[in-house]
Amino acid sequence: MKVLVTGFDPFGGESINPAYEAVRLLPDVIAGAEIIKLEIPTVFTRSAIVVEKAIEEYNPDIILCVGQAGGRTCITVEKVAINLAEARIPDNDGEQPFDQKLREDGETAYFSTLPVKAMVENMKVHKIPASISYTAGTYVCNSIMYHVLYLLEKRFKGKRGGFIHVPYESGQVVDKNIGMPFMSLDMIAQGLQYAIEAAIKNETDVKTIMGETH
After folding, report:
1. Does residue 65 carry a catalytic annotation?
2. What is the pLDDT of residue 169?
3. Among 74, 141, 147, 197, which one carries the catalytic annotation?
4. Is 165 a catalytic residue?
């Protein structure tokens, strides 16, 4: 089995992106599966092209994309991606879509095809703060999750895909507001490893109640 794990490059004035920095720390093999690590641009158009080419080249069984969500308190496994691009700030190529569909022939939304609850549970069992998220936003993170799931439905049937958001790493919050959440890169990488382990071992998700009350 092969797992393609992507992480974005820095954006929004940050000097690093904990997504790819943590991906780089992953072992080359997890639960018997080969781990392929790839940095992708924080760009609406190019990120989808890069990942599509990587799927063609490596033929992975699982595609897991990872992105930064500054301000979140824990690692969040995304449940759903929506067919909408709306950027509060330009991406790294200067693209700033407004109220725009990602794919004209795509569904309104796609659910992750990874076992998101099992992934969250495995992180929590290993004392990594984690939860399910029901919004990946409308920036490049949501965009790449949506494009991957679209491609898996249209072109690469039989493969599974999803997305994980990670918090700031500790060095990023030095000059930010007091109380800004963060996590060490080592803990983020450990969390990703446990999440990937669960995705490999669980073809279907666990029957555990999770959700939000608002």
Report:
1. no
2. 97
3. 141
4. yes
Residue 35, domain member (yes or no): yes
Cα–Cα nearest to 193, from 67, 18, 64, 10 = 64
Question: 198: closest CA among 31, 76, 81, 4?
Answer: 31
Each residue of 133-160: pLDDT tens digit? Answer: 999 999 999 999 999 999 999 999 999 9
Cβ neighbors of 147 (< 8 A, separation 6 or more) are 47, 48, 51, 52, 102, 103
Count of other CB atoms within 10 angstroms of residue 98? 8
Tell me the whole-structure pTM to 2 decimals: 0.96
- Catalytic residue flag (residue 141): yes
Residue type, 138: T
**Can you read off the two tokens belonging to residue 10?**
């820095």
State the CATH number of the domain containing residue 186: 3.40.630.20
Domains held by the chain: number: 1
